[in-house]
C-alpha cells in the first residue's frame, strides 16, 4: 500500500453496495482488534491480513481502496490468477495454506510471506525458487513462518509441524538463501479453548526466540478467535469471513 496520508474511512472509497458492506465489516473488525489490543495493555496493534480465498479479485480491489494492504490466500492456483489480475495494486500477498513443493516456483512470484512451512523439503524448494526469482526480478527475501500444530492429539489435524520440530525448521530457514525467518503461525484446534492454544503458541515462540531473536512474528487469530490471539501476543491476524462474509461451501 502506498501511504498517501489520506484517511481511509469507509465512505472515502468506492460507491457500490458491496464496497459499503465490506467497509462496514472492516470497520467492525478493526475496532475489535483495537479493543483487544487495549484490553491486553498492548501499545502496538497487530497486522491485519484479510483472507480473500474463494472471493473474487474485485473484492480485493475494493478492500485495497479501503486501505487494506495485506491479503491472504491458501491455494496457489487461485492466488496466482488473482495476483496476476491485480498486478497494478501495491499490496502484499501472504500464502497461508498447505503448500506442495512443486508450487514453490509459482508462489515465489507473488508472495511476500509463506506462513505454512511445515517440513524441510518445502524450505529447500522455496529457497531455490526465491533465489531464482531474485536473480531475474530482484525480489526481496521471502518472510517465512513455521506453522506449528497446537493439537494435543497428533491424530487430529489442522496442519503444522510438531512443536518439537520447530527449531529444526527454523534453523533450516535461517541458513537458506532468499528466506527470512519471521516467526510462527498456528490455527487454534477445533472445539478447543483458543486461549489455551494461543498461550501454548506464545510459549513456543518464546523458546524459538532464544536462538532466533528476530523471529518474533506470531500469526494467530481468525474471525472467531482474534481476541484470544491478540491477548496472547499475536503480531499478525488472518481474518476472512468476518470481513468478506461466508465462503461458498467447498464441494
Ligand atoms: C481461511 C483461513 C483463515 C481465515 O479464517 P476466517 O475464519 O474466515 O476468518 C485464517 N487462516 C487460515 C490458515 C485459513 O485457511
Structural account:
There is one protein chain. The chain contains 9 helices and 8 strands. With 251 residues, the chain is of the alpha/beta class. It has a single domain (17-244), classed as TIM Barrel (Alpha-Beta Barrel). The protein has an 8-stranded parallel sheet. The chain starts with 16 loop residues before the first helix and ends in a 7-residue tail after the last helix. Mean pLDDT is 93; it is low at 1-13. The structure holds pyridoxal-5'-phosphate. Pyridoxal-5'-phosphate (PLP) is lined by residues 51, 53, 74, 96-97, 187, 222-224, 238-242.
- Put simply, the count of helices is 9
CATH class: Alpha Beta
The CATH topology is: TIM Barrel
Structural class: alpha/beta
Terminal CA distance = 34 Å
| Average pLDDT rating | 93
CATH homologous superfamily (4th level) name: Alanine racemase
What coarse outline follows from CA principal-axis ratios? globular
Bound molecules: pyridoxal-5'-phosphate
Largest sheet: 8 strands, parallel
Q: What number of domains?
A: 1
Helix content: 40-55%
CATH architecture: Alpha-Beta Barrel
Strands, count: 8
SSE order in H/E notation? HEHEHEHEHEHEHEHEH
Organism: Paenarthrobacter nitroguajacolicus
Family: Belongs to the pyridoxal phosphate-binding protein YggS/PROSC family.
Cofactor: pyridoxal 5'-phosphate
Modified residues (N6-(pyridoxal phosphate)lysine): 53
Amino acid at each position: 500500500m502506498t501511504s498517501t496520508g489520506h484517511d481511509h474511512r469507509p465512505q472515502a472509497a468506492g460507491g457500490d453496495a458491496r464496497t459499503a458492506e465490506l467497509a462496514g465489516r472492516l470497520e467492525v473488525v478493526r475496532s475489535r482488534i483495537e479493543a483487544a489490543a487495549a484490553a491486553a495493555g498492548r501499545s502496538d496493534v497487530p497486522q491485519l491480513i484479510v483472507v480473500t480465498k474463494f472471493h473474487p479479485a474485485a473484492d480485493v480491489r475494493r478492500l485495497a481502496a479501503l486501505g487494506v494492504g495485506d491479503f491472504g490466500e491458501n491455494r496457489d492456483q487461485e492466488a496466482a490468477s488473482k495476483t496476476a489480475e491485480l498486478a497494478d495494486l501495491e499490496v502484499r500477498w501472504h500464502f497461508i495454506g498447505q503448500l506442495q513443493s512443486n508450487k514453490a516456483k509459482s508462489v515465489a512470484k507473488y508472495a511476500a510471506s509463506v506462513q505454512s512451512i511445515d517440513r524441510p523439503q518445502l524450505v529447500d524448494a522455496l529457497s531455490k525458487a526465491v533465489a531464482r526469482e531474485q536473480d531475474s526480478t530482484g525480489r526481496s527475501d521471502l518472510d517465512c513462518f513455521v506453522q506449528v500444530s497446537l493439537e494435543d492429539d497428533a491424530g487430529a489435524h489442522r496442519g503444522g509441524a510438531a512443536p518439537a520440530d520447530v527449531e529444526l525448521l527454523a534453523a533450516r530457514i535461517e541458513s537458506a538463501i532468499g528466506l527470512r525467518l519471521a516467526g510462527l503461525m498456528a490455527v487454534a484446534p477445533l472445539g478447543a479453548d483458543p486461549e489455551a492454544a494461543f498461550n501454548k503458541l506464545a510459549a513456543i515462540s518464546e523458546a524459538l526466540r532464544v536462538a532466533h531473536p528476530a523471529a518474533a512474528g506470531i500469526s494467530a487469530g481468525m474471525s472467531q478467535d482474534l481476541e484470544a490471539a491478540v491477548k496472547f501476543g499475536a503480531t499478525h491476524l488472518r481474518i476472512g469471513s468476518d470481513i468478506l462474509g461466508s465462503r461458498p461451501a467447498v464441494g
